[in-house]
Amino acid sequence: MADALRLFDADNHYYETADAFTRHLDPAMAKRSVQWATLDGRRRLLVAGTVNRLLANPTFDPVAKPGSLIAYFRGQNVEGSDLKSMFGTLDALSEHPEYTTAEGRLAAMDEQGLESVLLFPTLGVLLQHALRNDVDALHATYHAFNQWLLEDWGFGKDGRLYGVPVIILADPGLAAAEVDWALDAGAKMLCFIPGPVPKRGGGSRSPAAADLDPVWARINEAGVPVGFHGTDKVLDRYVAEWEEPNPGFAMFASPFSMMISHGRPIFDTLAALICHGLFTRFPNVRVATIETGSHWVHQFLLEARSVYGKRPSDFAEPPVETFQRHVWVSPFFEDRMGELKELIGADRMIFGSDWPHAEGLPAPGDFFDEIPDFDDAERAAVMGGNVRSLLGIT
Q: Count of domains in the chain?
C-alpha cells in the first residue's frame, strides 16, 4: 500500500507569490526584468517590458483543482471539450495556503502521507525565453527568484521541503557564482532548463559547451544532482517555420507544436550532454529528468546505439551505458511504466506527481496505482528510495 511507503515526490510545485521575482531584485533592473500591470481589468505579467503571452492567468487566481486535466493528458478527451470547460470549477488562491506557503504545504503533505518533496517552479521555469536577449537581466531575475525561494520555502533544511533553485547558464561566470551561492545555502538539487543555452549578443550553444566547464566542475565536485525540468518555448523558432505564431495566450494553443515537441527538448538536451562529452569530463554529474515524461526514452536509446555503431571513436564508451549510469527519469502518470522499467530499470525511475497542477495527479500518492506490476522493492524505490539515493539523504 502507498501509505506504508516513505513517499518522496520528485515533482511537487508551488504557485509563486506576486513578489517572487521582485522582492530581492535590484530596483534599477525592474524594467528589464519582471513587472506586473493591470490591463483591461486583468493582471498581466510584463517581462522585459512586454506582456508575456504564455499564460492567460499568470497570477493563478482563481486556480484549477489538482488533476482536473487528468482525462485530457490520458488522451481521453473523447468529446473534444475545450480546455476551459475541462479545467472545471476554479478556486480562489486564498482558499489554498498549501499552494503558496510552506506551512500550508507541510499540513497538506501530512494529510497526503508525503514525507518529502522536491519543489519546482510553476512560472519560474517559463521566463528564460522571454529574457534571453538581456543576459544580465536574465541572471539578475533568477538570482532574485532563488533568494525568494530560499526565504519562503527553503532548500531542505527541514528534511521535507526541498526547494530547487534555478541555475541559468547564459553567462558562465554568473552561473558559477549562482551555483556557489546555491550550494552554500544548502541546495540538494539544482534546476536547469532544457534546450540550448542563450548567448550574449544573441544565438545559443550547448549546455555542455566548453566555456561552461567551470559551472559543471563545481557541480561535479559537490556531487549535487541536476534536475532538468520541462518548460515551454524551446522550439518556438522551429515551430514558426511551419505555422504562424499564436497571437493570443499560447499555452496549449497549437496541436502541431504539442505533437512535435513531446519529449523533444529533453531528448536533444541529453543528446548534447552525451555527444559533447560532458559526462566524460565530469563523471560525477548526475541528471534527473523532471516533468518531461518518458515516451522519448525508447527512441533516445535506439538513436544512441545507432550513432555509436556508426562512430564509436567519437565516444569514450557506448552512449547507452552513459545514459544508464548518469540519468534518472520521472515519467508522466500516463506513460507506460513497465516498458520504461525494461529500458532503464526500476532503480532509475523516480515518481513525480506535478501536484498541485491541473495536469498532474489529484493526490501525489495516486502514482502508486500506476505501477501495479512492480514488486514491493521496486515500488519502494520508485516512490521514494531512488530520489533519496540520488540526493544522498536517508
A: 1
- Domain of 258 in residue numbering reads as 2-391
pLDDT band at 247 (very low <50, low <70, confident <90, very high): low
Residue-level pLDDT at 260: 85
Instruction: Specify the DSSP class assigned to residue 312.
Output: G
Produce one character per residue of 159-178: b if its CB has 16 or more CB atoms within 10 Å, e if not: ebbbbbbbbbbbbbebbbeb
CATH of the domain at 64: 3.20.20.140
| Alpha helices (H) along the chain | 70-73, 83-87, 97-100, 102-112, 128-131, 135-152, 172-184, 213-222, 236-239, 255-261, 264-275, 278-281, 295-310, 319-326, 337-344, 376-380, 386-391
Buried b (16+ CB within 10 A) or exposed e, 186-196: ebbbbbbbbbb
Whats the size of the chain, residue-wise? 394
Q: How far is CA 181 from CA 12, 174, 258, 388, in A?
A: 23, 10, 36, 23
pTM: 0.95
Question: What is the DSSP track for 24-71?
Answer: TS-GGGGGGSEEEEEETTEEEEEETTEE--S-S-TT--SBPPTTTTHH
Cell reading at 226: 541536476
Beta bridge partners of 329: 289, 349
Of the candidates 289, 290, 276, 323, the residue with the CA atom closest to the CA atom of residue 304:
323
Read off the C-alpha cell for 94.
Answer: 486564498
